Amino acid sequence: MSKKVLLVFMLVGLTLLSFGKTKISVWQFMMDDNLSQQVKADFEKANPDIELEIVQLSWATGFDRIVTSIAAGTAPDVIELGNTWLATFASQGVLRPVDDLVGKAKDDYVAWNFVEYQDKYWGFPWLLAPRCMYYNLELLEKAGLDPDNPPKTWMELLNASAKIHALGPDIYGVGLCVGELYSPYQEWFLPAVWGNFGHFVSPDLKKATLNSDPVIEAAYYYRSLKDYALLGKESELAEAFGKGKLGFFFAGPAYINNTQRDYPETIFDVAFIPKPRENYGYHASFAGGEVLGISSQCKNIDEAWRVVEYLLGEKVAMQITRTTGEVFPTKVGIEKDPWFESHPLHRTFLEQNQYAVPFPPLAEANKIEQLFTNIVEEILLTNTPIENILQKYNEQIQSLL
């Protein structure tokens, strides 16, 4: 047999093998190109009947790109979503309910409240990103505070912020987010409400309760902080904190690596978010996170589930944790991973997750999130009576419900 004929046979064989594979596409945000290629190669080696396509999305355009693909009938098989998006997509028929698949994973993972909507599961909890309180140890010490004993209650934080703010005209006690979507309510305002046993919507998700006493109390406290606060976008607060001009601010774990890299001289730590009082409330945090959903347009459910199961696994999820330092696996027992022993600040975030609360599973979540940005900014940037602010937006939320 000539070399040319042999080559033809080989090419035909490879083509047939390719045609015999099922292609599964995954659109995701958390894996960079290098990690995506590694995951793709490892998965295909273990699953030679599946061709895996991994597309990286950006947070700036990813939501719109997903919506466009769905409208065009070209949605990916597996989609990573921020957990606050899930109810919106589920309510619009974008996702396939996965109750028939959840049984295979239910006991191995936490945060199933991320993916519940109308008594069904619409995805799989993948990665966790709670918020904690960052604090500058040197500023606490200069203000006569114990750097080994950061504030644990609202009043302790208020008093500590006042003392740090008094250190100088360019020093601020606490940073509070304004001027952008999401962070103004996620980084602390809504968790303060939750920690005060308050809610902005009733348990049956039918009645707005933003004008209730626990919310009003939290809003009054939040406004009291502004006398000692630097107000700005999250990135601006992080910069001020890195430069040693800010005592406290609230954010996700991404700023651990960022601050250590960009401001190595800054000595800081992280702690649970303060609760209302010593004997009342709890250290509530915003339960940020990522979920994996299977598109309602997916035609190969069994193969898509195999991909999801692989991504959920400790190997891939911990690779993302080690690479980004921004999120943690939902795998039960992940705190025993040796990585957390050598990364105590990240471990605190993982422990904070026990008090983390997800945004309620509302179909209009995206619109309500935008309202919360306005709520927080009116509390911090105006002198409008708190009750008036909350009543106005309570009516708007009720209309969306």
Automatic annotation (TrEMBL):
Entries under SUPFAM superfamilies matching the protein = Periplasmic binding protein-like II
Gene3D superfamilies hit by this protein: Periplasmic binding protein-like II
Q: Which domain of life is it from?
A: Bacteria
Return the protein name. Maltose-binding protein
Taxonomy of the source species: Bacteria, Thermotogati, Thermotogota, Thermotogae, Petrotogales
